[in-house]
Amino acid sequence: MFNLEKTMTAQTARQLSPVTLAFVGDAVYSLYIRGQLAASSDRRPAELQKMASSKVSAHGQSELLIELEARFNEEEHEIFLRGRNAKKATKSKNAEVAEYNRSTGFEAVLGFLWLTGRIERICQLLGE
Question: Which residues are catalytic?
Answer without folding.
Answer: 26
